[in-house]
Specification:
The protein has 17 helices and 13 strands. The chain is α/β, with parallel strands linked by helices. The strands form 2 sheets. It has an 8-stranded mixed β-sheet with strand order 3-2-1-4-5-6-7-8, sandwiched between helices. Helix 5 runs parallel beside helix 6 and helix 5 runs parallel beside helix 11. 40% of the residues are buried.
C-alpha cells in the first residue's frame, strides 16, 4: 500500500530548477509517477548514509544522480585495495584517502547540485542524534550489529525512517523499518544480537563484489519511493536475494508486541552502550585470552626458516587460501581437520602454527595444549604480519 511522501509539500514547493537541471532530470519529469512535483521533493530531501563502503557506494551514487538535494556520509575508514572489488564510489587513485572525501568528490562529479556533508567519525550513541538530526531518511549501509541496533533505535526515537540492507557472500537483504508508518523495527526481527563472532563479517567470510550493487540500489529505490510518495515501500516486508540461484524471496515482517523498543511496554527508551549490548568487550576479552598463548613473531619465524631450524610448521587455513599464498615448508592441516589429524603431529617436536592473521592458529595452539602438547607456538599476526613486516611483496588478502 502506498504511503504519503515524507517531504512536506511546503518544502518541495520552494524548489526551483535551472534549465540544466530540467535537462538532467528529464527522464524523471516525464514519468507520471514522478513529474516535476516528485523531482521537487527529491531536491528538498536529505538522506544520511551510514557507511561509504559496499552498500554505501551504489546508494550514494544513485541518490546523487537522482537529484536528492542533500546527502550526508558517515564513515571513519580510509580506502584500501580490498575495498575496490565492490566499493565502486572509490577508485585506485583514492588509495589511503578518507572514504568520506573520496565519495564526496565522486558525488560532486556526478551531480554538482547536491550538497554533501561528511562525518569522518564512527557513528556512536554520543554523536548519533546530532549527526542524524537534519536528515529525513537514514540508510544503514554498515556491516556490524552495534551500528545496526544504534541506527534502528535512533530512527524509532526520532521518528525517522530506516532503510536497511545487509550482505554476506552471495546473499543480501533489504527492508524498510518505519514503526511510525505502521511497520516493525529491527528489534522486532532480532530482539538480541547473535553471540560475538558467530556471524562472520565480509572481511572474514567474503562477499561477491556485485552483490552490494544490487542491495544498495534496492535501498536507494526505497528512499526515492519514500521521498516521492510512490509505489509500495518495503515496510513490513523483507526481500532476500540469493545471487547463486538468482532468486528473490519476500518475507512478511510483523511488529513484535513484546518488542523492547517499539512495543507497548518498552524497556529501551534512549540510546544505550551498543558495544556492551552486542558483547564487544566480552568478545575482546575472549580474543585476548585466546591470544594469550605461546607465540613467535614473524621476524623470529623468518630467522628459524633461514637457519633451517628443526620444527614442525603447520598452516591451519583452508586449501583455497593456501592457493592465494603460502610459505615453503608449511604443511596444510585446516583448522576443522586438526582434531582428527593430531596423530600426524609429535608432541615431542617443536610445532609452530600459522594462519591469515593469527586468530585461528592461536585457537589451534590452545586445542593442542589441551590435548597434551607442550611445545607449540602461534605466529602472532600470521601471514598479514609477514606481508607487512617481513616480505612486502607477499600477497595480502
Amino acid at each position: 500500500m502506498p504511503v504519503p511522501s515524507i517531504i512536506e509539500a511546503s518544502r518541495s514547493a520552494k524548489q526551483e530548477f535551472s534549465n540544466d537541471e530540467i535537462a538532467r532530470y528529464s527522464r524523471h519529469l516525464i514519468m507520471p509517477e514522478v513529474t516535476l512535483e516528485g523531482q521537487k521533493r527529491l531536491k528538498a530531501a536529505s538522506v544520511l548514509c551510514i557507511g561509504a563502503g559496499g552498500l554505501g557506494s551504489p546508494i550514494l551514487l544513485y541518490l546523487a544522480a537522482a537529484g536528492v538535494g542533500r546527502l550526508g556520509i558517515v564513515d571513519s575508514d580510509v580506502v584500501d585495495f580490498s575495498n575496490l572489488q565492490r566499493q565502486v564510489v572509490h577508485g585506485t587513485k583514492d588509495m589511503g584517502r578518507s572514504k568520506c572525501k573520496s565519495a564526496r568528490e565522486r558525488i560532486r562529479d556526478i551531480n554538482p547540485n547536491v550538497q554533501v556533508d561528511i562525518f569522518e567519525t564512527l557513528f556512536t550513541s554520543e554523536n548519533a542524534r546530532k549527526i542524524a538530526g537534519p536528515y529525513d531518511i537514514i540508510i544503514d549501509g554498515t556491516d556490524n550489529f552495534q551500528t545496526r541496533y544504534l541506527t534502528n533505535d535512533l530512527c524509532f526515537l526520532t521518528g525517522k525512517v530506516n532503510v536497511y540492507g545487509s550482505i554476506f557472500r552471495f546473499d543480501g537483504q533489504c527492508t524498510v523499518f518505519a514503526p511510525r508508518l505502521g511497520g516493525p523495527c529491527y528489534r522486532c526481527m532480532f530482539p538480541e544480537p547473535p553471540p560475538p563472532g558467530e556471524v562472520p563479517t565480509c572481511a572474514e567470510g567474503g562477499v561477491l563484489g556485485v552483490l552490494p550493487g544490487i542491495i544498495g540500489v534496492m535501498q536507494a529505490v526505497e528512499a526515492v519511493k519514500l521521498i516521492c510518495g510512490i509505489g509500495e515501500p518495503l515496510i513490513g516486508r523483507l526481500v532476500n536475494f540469493d545471487a547463486l540461484a538468482m532468486k528473490f524471496r519476500e518475507f512478511k515482517l510483523r511488529k513484535d508486541p513484546k518488542c523492547p523498543l517499539c512495543g507497548p511496554d518498552p524497556t529501551v527508551t534512549d540510546l544505550i552502550d551498543y558495544d556492551q549490548f552486542c558483547g564487544i568487550p566480552q568478545a575482546r576479552a575472549r580474543k585476548e585470552e585466546e591470544a594469550n598463548v605461546p607465540a613467535v613473531s614473524v621476524e623470529e619465524l623468518k630467522a628459524k626458516l633461514d637457519a633451517k631450524a628443526a620444527f614442525k610448521f603447520v598452516d591451519v587455513r583452508e586449501p583455497y587460501e593456501r592457493d592465494i599464498c603460502a610459505l615453503a615448508g608449511a604443511e596444510l592441516i585446516p583448522m576443522a581437520q586438526l582434531p582428527a589429524r593430531m596423530s600426524e603431529l609429535d608432541s615431542a617436536v617443536d610445532t609452530i602454527l600459522i594462519c591469515k592473521n593469527g586468530a585461528r592458529s592461536a585457537h589451534a595452539v590452545k586445542m593442542l595444549q589441551e590435548a597434551g602438547f607442550g611445545r607449540v607456538w602461534n605466529v602472532a599476526g600470521g601471514f598479514d604480519a609477514w606481508a607487512e613486516r617481513v616480505d612486502t611483496a607477499f600477497p595480502k588478502y
